[in-house]
Write a structure and sequence with these properties.
By secondary structure, the protein is an alpha/beta fold. It has 13 helices and 13 strands. The protein has helices at about 10-20, 25-30, 30-40, 45-70, 75-85, 95-100, 120-130, 155-180, 190-195, 205-220, 235, 240-265, 290; strands at about 85-90, 105, 110-115, 140-145, 195-200, 225-230, 265-270, 275-280, 280-285, 300-305, 310-315, 325-330, 330-335. β8 (about 275-280) and β9 (about 280-285) form a beta hairpin. The radius of gyration is 22 Å and the shape is globular.
Length: about 350
């Protein structure tokens, strides 16, 4: 339940959201003193807000208690559901293999690595590949691309879309020789029209957009992937209070998990790297700290090994730890080959 349900002035509601109190449960879990300090209001105002939040959440829990009990599932049904979940191909079969077929729907997947390793390329590739029609083994869906850094390149998206259409036409030509096959109806401009692009310029805009996604996806039910490039940028720039940042990010991660489950879509969060002091030396690690590392279902780390790019499954409840090489070509992500290497940047 959102903070917007509270009968408050827009200025107070804005202060709550900016401080990371985006849901009623996050408000109910703190004291009036802490709430007053975090939101910069009087303790009397904080007490009234807590009172309203507790009344609404209490009423909702009483009305929804029976549905919670009736919502239980058995493990066998859950296993069958998971095995039937669709995946979004990365266009790199080696990478798809270690991912269990591609990026899984109903999961939140974090992909992080150094600059120039291809994070944005993967994001654009997924926003195109999610649209591959079902008759070609795809999802026939649409994509939401949330750009916090200004790194999305529409010209690059067009290149990858053109390559995707060419691959489908090549596949159709092969199938026509041996079987009856469908014609490719999709054009590159159709693919671009199905990528919903949002440019986010501050962490408050990012929070507001994430809160709006449920409504937006309800109105655009074909959306099958949400990509955030990157989840990190504004939270590394604008936050001095690390406790507040952790709370805001935890709320955001929870919302992404709920979206993934509710709409059976994939959420892909691209992350930057930072330095971490470990065992007497500084080492590269994904940004946002240890607490954030528990917020995603799967975590994939991209790294250089000599001149080649590699992806490593660092954390997953269903996938074994494994690595695979990949390369970024003019046509998008592909299996690594000796003809497409580059100099290591970091």
């Amino acid at each position: 339940m959102e903070t917007s349900r509270l009968p408050l002035s827009s200025s107070i509601r804005g202060k709550l959201i900016s401080a990371g109190y985006t849901s009623l449960s996050s408000i109910s879990s703190v004291s009036s003193t802490d709430l007053a300090r975090d939101v910069n209001i009087t303790e009397a105002e904080a007490f009234e807000i807590l009172k309203m939040a507790n009344q609404i959440t209490g009423s909702s829990s009483r009305n929804g208690s029976s549905s919670l009990v009736n919502g239980a599932k058995n493990a066998w049904d859950m296993l069958n559901e998971e095995e039937a979940l669709p995946h979004i191909t990365t266009s790199c079969s080696d990478l798809d293999k270690i991912l269990g077929g591609g990026i899984s729907c109903r999961d939140v997947t974090e992909i992080g690595g150094v600059p120039g390793i291809g994070k944005t390329q993967i994001g654009i590739q997924l926003s195109v590949n999610v649209q591959i029609p079902r008759e070609f083994g795809g999802l026939g869906g649409k994509a939401i691309y949330i750009d916090t850094e200004g790194s999305f390149m529409v010209e690059r998206a067009l290149q990858i879309a053109e390559a995707c259409v060419e691959d489908m036409e090549e596949y159709t030509g092969y199938m026509h020789k041996h079987f009856k096959a469908s014609q490719v109806q999709m054009k590159p401009n159709d693919i671009l029209e199905n990528i919903f692009y949002f440019r986010v310029c501050s962490y408050t805009e990012q929070i507001a957009l994430v809160n709006h996604l449920d409504k937006f996806i309800s109105e655009n039910k074909d959306v099958k992937v949400v990509i955030v490039d990157s989840i990190t940028f504004h939270f590394r720039q604008d936050f001095d209070d690390l406790a507040q940042r952790t709370r805001v990010l935890s709320e955001m991660a929870l919302k992404f998990m709920k979206l993934a489950k509710k709409f059976s879509l994939a959420v892909v969060l691209l992350n930057q790297v930072t330095t971490k002091y470990t065992e007497g030396s500084f080492q590269l690690a994904l940004a946002l700290g240890d607490s954030w590392s528990h917020s995603c279902t799967n975590r994939v780390i991209l790294y250089w090994n000599g001149d080649e790019r590699y992806a490593y499954i660092d954390k997953s409840p269903s996938l074994p730890s494994a690595s695979a090489s990949y390369t970024v070509t003019s046509r998008g992500l592909r299996n690594s080959s000796a003809s497409s290497k580059r100099v290591k940047m970091m």
